[in-house]
Amino acid sequence: xxxxxxxxxxxxxxxxxxxxxxxxxxxxxxxxxxxxxxxxxxxxxxxxxxxxxxxxxxxxxxxxxxxxxxxxxxxxxxxxxxxxxxxxxxxxxxxxxxxxxxxxxxxxxxxxxxxxxxxxxxxxxxxxxxxxxxxxxxxxxxxxxxxxxxxxxxxxxxxxxxxxxxxxxxxxxxxxxxxxxxxxxxxxxxxxxxxxxxxxxxxxxxxxxxxxxxxxxxxxxxxxxxxxxxxxxxxxxxxxxxxxxxxxxxxxxxxxxxxxxxxxxxxxxxxxxxxxxxxxxxxxxxxxxxxxxxxxxxxxxxxxxxxxxxxxxxxxxxxxxxxxxxxxxxxxxxxxxxxxxxxxxxxxxxxxxxxxxxxxxxxxxxxxxxxxxxxxxxxxxxxxxxxxxxxxxxxxxxxxxxxxxxxxxxxxxxxxxxxxxxxxxxxxxxxxxxxxxxxxxxxxxxxxxxxxxxxxxxxxxxxxxxxxxxxxxxxxxxxxxxxxxxxxxxxxxxxxxxxxxxxxxxxxxxxxxxxxxxxxxxxxxxxxxxxxxxxxxxxxxxxx
Length: 544
What we know:
The protein is of the alpha/beta class. The protein has helices spanning 8-27, 32-43, 61-67, 74-87, 106-119, 144-147, 183-188, 232-236, 242-245, 275-287, 297-314, 320-342, 349-374, 385-402, 416-423, 425-441, 467-482, 513-529; strands at residues 54-59, 91-94, 122-129, 138-140, 152-155, 168-175, 180-181, 210-217, 229-231, 249-254, 262-263, 273-274, 293-294, 344-345, 406-413, 449-452, 457-463, 485-489, 492-495, 498-505, 535-538. It has three domains: 8-42 and 295-374, no CATH class; 49-289, no CATH class; 385-538, Reverse transcriptase/Diguanylate cyclase domain (Alpha-Beta Plaits, 2-Layer Sandwich). The two termini are 40 Å apart.
């Protein structure tokens, strides 16, 4: 017998329940670590040739050794900028902290400002100073003299996830409103519609908070040292061919060990990436239209819920195992295809976890159904012969330990073969189902057990029940059967009677379960010999 299927309304309700759980898990990022592990696996080796215009002028260990201890005079940076200007560099990011004036020599600030003005295409960083105690968050801009000569400013805020990996950034940010472009965006000088997830509450924030907008994932060109890089001191000394600098988008930044900021990325888990390389990756991604965007939150939640609901409905179909085996890899494949083909990230962990939970629940239900099926009679739903023998052994052993009586009741449907011959097997099955329902109703206590172990043969195991108690149960069952009208043929009914044998003993050291069965069977045959439609009790006394 196959396990009884749930009605469609219940199937849909279960599917919606698991789908809602998946949507909630997706919305509140319950499994973000698993999502990021999948993301890192997908993008870790997804390299591409970086934009050839990008060049890093590195403030490296060699430059520090030759020029001297950091910080350097601003006139040094001015000379470097003039070198880049003369070589014809297209745009320069000077990723240096210039928010304080030179307190020893004001002429240094003026010299750098003049060099920035002569170049005309210099981008300077805006640093975010987070709120600390009573001090509010603030933007640290270069000093006004230098700012006034810059082509534009860009924020250098790097978004690092809770696990310490830099996977994305906000393309715009600022105090009160996100008005500054990211440094890499300013270097790329990209115009047009801005990609990325928008701020869900753009008008509800304090004007004194650091606001961010247009979140994207960074498509890294590859591991560290993917971009061409020259030493700061070599450019300063004219050792770098001007042709190599001409037409370049130059990023001047710190790479020296112990001073430069170091970042972990999905492509560099074993090697640190400098902040300059990070910004170069941002610019290259924007120039090549390789921005990875996230699904809007409502689409992410909806897709997770729908996938899980479909998986749950698939589990109710005949090929449920195939549905379960396909649901998980297809969800991962969908995430992979959206990322690789559409630069769109769908986080699959919530859907996968909910699917696993649904599949586990389905497996447990199937196991439970199979166990019930293995111990149940297919026609009546009562315990089968195997379950009867197990229960009789269990209760016999329990009675032996407790010293309490055990009663076994064997029940036979009178003249059942004759009924089958006249009205047919379908009518006979109806009789057996009705009789089984009545017998099952008399197994009232948790340990009472009703079983069908033959064609028209039934049994009741009544633990902790003496002969008089068993007799009361049997008399009530017989009365119930006598009042039962069983459909026999269209417009016709018939009455059914039962013959019952009862055997009651206190299990002892010399008794076995088969002794109870044999005793009840002998009592049943005596009841049949006495004219049927009654019962005989064997309680070890002469009375019957």
